[in-house]
Design a protein that fits this description.
single chain
Amino acid sequence: MTEDLFRSSHKRISTKESENENKKFKTHVPSIINDFELTFDEQIILLNIDDSYDICSPISNINKMIQISSNNPSKIRLKTGKNNLMIIQSYLSSSIISFIKINNKFNSLSNNDRRILIQRHIHHLIGLNQLFIYNEIHFLNDPIENSIISNEYGSLYLENLLNIIKKMPEDKKLIKLFLIILIFSTCSDIIHFNLNQCKYSYFKE
């Protein structure tokens, strides 16, 4: 792991300061991750990942939209639910693309390597991001939102969402770290789409 994995949004701590700051810093590291006895530099990388995700996070925009929608009567919410759901899905996609784009290591790869990784993983990344954000904003606690999702994708899809979210780790940083791992994973043999027809124009040559 290297410190320049992400452009950091917080002040970097020099090597001379590391020893003095280490104890104080550990109070900010999740206990699950800290069980792995990360070095100070590795903890810095973890914070960089956390900061970078939060910079790209669409949670505030989604919450604002949900807040406005919640003021409407139930019938109107159900009527406009499909359109709102599509907007949320757009936020989920664009935030993951932004998260990838600020990754220095990803940008240092050749165009071909970037295309292959995105071709194999973009849908998985969006799906994991969806689960994480739904859980963060308690989206599926709303019975009307559940009805909208069930009507659009089916009750089995909704049931699977709820079951997966229940099993997700409470540690938010673990999810964000896994997103990074998934970006660079070479284990998937699933090709999701033809990049010549890809709507994510950033990843076209």
